[in-house]
Amino acid sequence: MVKKLQEETHFDKVEVKSLYSTFNECATDGKLDRPAFKKAIGKLEEAGLKKLDDTPFPDRMFELLDLNKDGTVDLQEFISGLSFLCKGTPEEKLLLSFKAYDIDGNGYITKDELCLMFKQAWISGFKALCTTHGNEELSMEELNEFAEEMATLFADNAFDTLDTNKDGKLSFEEFKEFALAEPKITATLNGFKREVTITF
């Protein structure tokens, strides 16, 4: 099993074994439900991978990896998905990022979807920074208002620039142009530990 997963993913033998162990620690009957998936994601830093549990990504990742929509993620889905997330090619990461923003899965990103993900990212990032530095100057209500304002501004600017045909949605090609111009958009989609970013 380990050899097969190594051959089919971007992970080496040591990484596959570590992920396999993490999966088994959290799984029930060989599958992860949403809470167990979040627990497994929280253990990724121990495996030397990018920590994601302080971002809005685990929920979306679970939905993307649950290919048969049975409410669980199996070992193959878990390791293959993380392979794209952490060690995929730039094109693979961009596609995964696009799917994360495309909440309803219709192949396009609307301004509301972009705004929602930005807002969640700002809130998650700010909370993580407050935890790291032991400082929390904004109330939750103020943080929500601030995140909403910044997310709306960012989404408006993105659509003004990139929605070239003005149809109110971004295709993958339009999103790709956006992501390449704003590299922090995919900053959490890498396998390297770095400071928490307040953009998704």
UniProtKB/TrEMBL annotation:
Highest taxon listed in the record's lineage: Eukaryota
Signal sequence interval, chain numbering: none
Domain EF-hand, first and last residues per copy: 53-88, 89-124, 150-185
Pfam families linked: EF-hand_1, EF-hand_7
Keywords, sorted A to Z: Calcium, Metal-binding, Repeat
GO molecular function terms attached to this record: calcium ion binding
Entries under InterPro entries matching the protein: EF-hand-dom_pair, EF_Hand_1_Ca_BS, EF_hand_dom, Recoverin
Matches recorded under PANTHER family: CALCIUM BINDING PROTEINS, RECOVERIN FAMILY PROTEIN DDB_G0274781
Name by which UniProt lists this protein: NCS1/frequenin-related protein
Species assigned in the record: Acanthamoeba castellanii (strain ATCC 30010 / Neff)
